[in-house]
Automatic annotation (TrEMBL):
The organism of origin for this protein: Gluconobacter frateurii NRIC 0228
Family indicated by similarity: Belongs to the CorA metal ion transporter (MIT) (TC 1.A.35) family.
Keyword Transmembrane tagged: yes
Pfam family, one: CorA
Protein name: Magnesium/cobalt transporter CorA
Annotated localization: Cell membrane
Length: 354
């Protein structure tokens, strides 16, 4: 790819300023390009400024920092990102990657990694987890994503004059806090589901319909497991002793973000323990209900056993069967069955089997 790539296909511009001023739309997947200066309004960059910003060996003399955000759903966008100048080869490859993964690394003043986020599904319960990638220096932030990431859009819209962080690390911190906030909201909903299931389990008198409770608890455990598989790697990489973050990003990523992620992980573990305990109690109640039904069947079978013997005896097609000739033979045989059943019942009572 040449050092001066040709922008050859359009993209979606999120910044309304582009549409109002008629500025040329960038291509190669660039969604927005802005300059952020604390205390000033966000400024959109023109195509020539982006070209200058991406020129190899350039040195930024302007105040504040810059943010370039790319959509890598198109192959040409991934190819363009994979050849960005002034970045190590492994960082460029990571930015153009499409597979899901969690990572955070730093060398000198350069920090790069891949972090999780939820997609833009309308229902919060239906949101799938995907990844967005970033590389940043104190004066430049480059982010890429393959799926729409609402947290990045929210971070972009939050960049008002009085809310612009001094470094790009503040954007990563905001995205992580928004993600952990969404996780904790989902945990709150799952906890409410467990509350309802627990109330039903404690108040129900006839335990013959516990199957739907098992579905609720199973859904909570599945979602909690999915979230834990995502949050645990973030907590691990933020606590990695080998991760040497530069001083300008230490407060946002090492302190605030780590506390938020660890708090979300603690809530997840507590929810999983509660769901597991509730499922154990539900399983115990279901086993108790099953044993009760089997007990009723066993008692009925035992009580009918003498009657079955009597009816089998009188049903033999042999000569000389007594009661066969009398007018009251059926009633007398029924009385014999009842007597044997009563004797069996009394025996089971005395033997404390009932």
């Amino acid at each position: 790819m040449s050092e001066n790539p040709t922008y050859n296909f359009p993209f979606t511009v999120l910044d309304p300023a582009f549409q109002e001023t008629g500025k040329p739309a960038f291509a190669n997947g660039l969604v927005w390009a802005v300059q952020a200066v604390p205390g000033q309004d966000l400024r959109s960059l023109g195509a020539d400024e982006v070209e200058e910003l991406l020129t190899p060996g350039r040195r930024l003399s302007a105040e504040g920092w810059f943010w370039l955000h790319f959509d890598t759903v198109h192959s040409s966008a991934r190819s363009f990102v994979a050849h960005l100048p002034d970045l190590p080869e492994d960082v460029r490859a990571m930015l153009a990657e499409t597979e899901y993964g969690i990572a955070l690394e730093a060398v000198d003043d350069l920090i790069w990694g891949a972090l999780p986020a939820f997609d833009d599904a309308l229902a919060e319960d239906d949101r799938e987890i995907c990844a967005w990638r970033f590389a940043m220096r104190p004066d430049l932030l480059i982010t890429t994503r393959r799926n729409p990431i609402p947290v990045l859009g929210a971070a972009y819209r939050s960049l008002r004059a009085d809310h612009i962080p001094p470094t790009p690390a503040g954007i990563v911190d905001r995205a992580l806090r928004e993600f952990t906030g969404t996780v904790r909201r989902q945990l709150g909903q799952l906890d409410d589901d467990l509350d309802r299931a627990e109330d039903v389990l404690l108040l129900i008198e006839h335990r013959s319909d516990l199957g739907h409770l098992g579905g609720i608890v199973g859904k909570v455990r599945r979602r909690a497991t999915e979230l834990r598989r995502v949050v645990t790697p973030i907590d691990r990489v933020l606590k990695d002793e080998d991760l040497d973050l530069p001083e300008w990003a230490e407060d946002e990523l090492r302190d605030r973000a780590e506390r938020q992620v660890h708090a979300a992980l603690d809530d997840l573990i507590a929810l999983q323990d509660r769901a597991r305990s509730l499922q154990d109690e539900l399983g115990s109640n279901q086993a108790e209900e099953t044993n009760r039904r089997l007990y009723i069947v066993s008692v009925g079978t035992t009580l009918m056993l003498p009657a079955t013997f009597v009816t089998g005896f009188f049903g033999m097609n042999t000569g000389g069967m007594f009661l066969a000739q009398g007018a009251w033979g059926t009633i007398e045989a029924g009385f014999v069955c009842f007597v044997f059943m009563a004797v069996t019942f009394l025996f089971m009572k005395l033997a404390r089997l009932l």
